[in-house]
Amino acid sequence: MALIVQKYGGTSVGTVERIKAVAEKVAKFQRDGHQIVVVVSAMSGETNRLIGLSQEITAEPTPREMDVLVSTGEQVTIALLSMALNEIGQPARSYTGAQIPIQTDNVHMKARIEKIDELKMRADLNAGRVIVVAGFQGVDFDGNITTLGRGGSDTTAVALAAALKADECQIYTDVDGVYTTDPRVVDKARRLETITFEEMLEMASLGSKVLQIRSVEFAGKYNVPLRVLSSFQEGPGTLITVDDEVDMEKPVISGIAFTRDEAKLTVRNAPDTPGIAYKILGPVGEANIEVDMIVQNVGAQGATDFTFTVHRNEYAKTKKILEKSIQEMGAGELTGDDKIAKISLVGVGMRSHAGVASRMFDTLAKEGVNIEMISTSEIKISVVVAEKYLELAVRALHTAFELDKTD
Amino acid sequence: MALIVQKYGGTSVGTVERIKAVAEKVAKFQRDGHQIVVVVSAMSGETNRLIGLSQEITAEPTPREMDVLVSTGEQVTIALLSMALNEIGQPARSYTGAQIPIQTDNVHMKARIEKIDELKMRADLNAGRVIVVAGFQGVDFDGNITTLGRGGSDTTAVALAAALKADECQIYTDVDGVYTTDPRVVDKARRLETITFEEMLEMASLGSKVLQIRSVEFAGKYNVPLRVLSSFQEGPGTLITVDDEVDMEKPVISGIAFTRDEAKLTVRNAPDTPGIAYKILGPVGEANIEVDMIVQNVGAQGATDFTFTVHRNEYAKTKKILEKSIQEMGAGELTGDDKIAKISLVGVGMRSHAGVASRMFDTLAKEGVNIEMISTSEIKISVVVAEKYLELAVRALHTAFELDKTD
Q1: Which of B38, B60, B64, B83 has the highest number of chain A CBs within 10 A, making it the mutation to test binding with A?
Q2: Which of A36, A45, A378, B316 has the largest CB neighbor count within 10 A?
Q3: Would B187 be classed as within a structural domain?
Q4: CA B221/CA B375 separation, integer angstroms
Q5: pTM of the predicted model, to two decimals?
Q6: Do B58 and A87 touch (CB under 8 A)?
């Protein structure tokens, strides 16, 4: 017998029929002898409907009242799912965030969980009941309703699993697991049986939006085994675990993430003096533009080349800021490119295997792909290439690092 | 400065525009120096939408979960109204039933209020905030969400007014007050400035569905001055008060209520023996048919005539039951009429004035209206007449008892 926390997102509970299907699924787990806590999101579309109502009232809704408003979305789902479970003979009981209670700080619309009381849940589980909890919401220490921000239902599930010391936290979604790379680009992309938290974080932050980053961090921190699987088809999904042993069988690279959302800007021949990075990036940061990769090379004769990437939407704005900076510095020359793509190899195996970088560069060179920027971290190597080479590069790397489906 | 509890029903908050209009109205009261607690219902249509969802899941929804579900309707409204108030510069804060808390018993879907904590409300009022409370809902002593049953928002308002010792509880609705009779039948019907709780109860139970009966009982019990007025037009409405003095100016009759919903059945020449009423009405009650008026006359030679009224929809069913009873008794003969109407004069003034009944009977006789049944209580006289005479009778009585508009 295992204690399992399951989370079903908005699409999985998007209609009454789907809610009934989730009830059948949950009841089957319970019949198989497990104890089940279910976390649900609002029915798909509902949160947007509620936000729409608030926007008709005001452009700046009171954050406290926004939380009162949108938290009703999940409350509707927990009631309907509990009814559906009771209807098929599986005793169930719903809880709002405030009823558990899931205590949070008082930062409305992006609250953080501080404490979860497991007493009521434990009593229900021992009585054979399925517990249905509203995701995404909590209550502060003054009894105000709070929400964790959009997508926060994953975090609720992980936090409940941690509090209950659950055997597994299962995130049901519309994909059947985490893939070595985007299957729409590489048809040989393979579902991973397992991936480490660190790898998942790198994959998630690079656009493989299977899980909310925060919930993965949370699961890693509290050592909650996390599994991603499909609501709509059978299968084991992908288990996200702590990398507590060196698995010799495990490939060096777990996956390849990529994004086309970036643009790069280079200041050439800037004076190589202390504080030059701040002089260039300071005004960019002040304009609330997020900078991703940063590379600096020493150029000729005491000058330096300084390159960084920003979100593609910010390209024009950033360019304008830099033109002004260069004028003020009285030096340098600006170039830029918004037709770039970033490709990252991710894998904890990198730590113990030399040569990942050289194999990557070699592979790209053989395909005639020029590397424009390189950035490395302990478990990730990222390169920037011209956007037109993206698919070619990803497919070549997928094969070179033995990630292709073998069947 | 007065402390006022205001209740706005589903129609009054049925759209975002109407919610904004309510906010303006409330803010004006606050600017005029009053402290305001607002109780709101779900936006019109919302409760039915939620019930519809539950019906798609199951024919017998778990009552506990039904309360979790439908209570979201009011929660949406309190958030939107609070936002609208904040938007126009009037600080406001919303509370669900559980947040106040409004403590109830644990009878889901028809809970009764047991205790209201006024601490938080008092603090907000003293800080100059408008308090916006979700009507119709509460929380039991185990933290489960409860609802007071449909229309229970009036009761919430009265209960809050009692707990806060408010100066007045104002019920905003789509009519501008309580009338001497239905203005659609008598165009000279007049809005009453005041009416007593007792009279209001008699009027309400007879089909003048301006207020929920339970909220009127509640207001009477706790001596809360209750005012019915329109959300959509200006005016003082009707004040419902305790009859604490004899007002010599007050007319003997306050209003005339009527209903076409009834049918009458008569058992003639039933044996006049003890238990005969039970023999006739017992099987009717067992079939869950509610009996309204009952009249028994001693007939000729130890036999009795027994007449009663039921809802018109139950006429055929009741007739069938009686046919069987008569057969079993071996006596009696059955007649019936489902084309009747009941007309009631209501007024606390009746207590101290003799002759109301005779004036009523005289008025009807002059119009050629035959009285088929009579029933009296301390502040009410009801008669049953053929339905075709209804309008004629009501108009004649309205004039005879000096209820007509004088302008």
Answers
A1: B83
A2: A36
A3: no
A4: 26
A5: 0.82
A6: yes
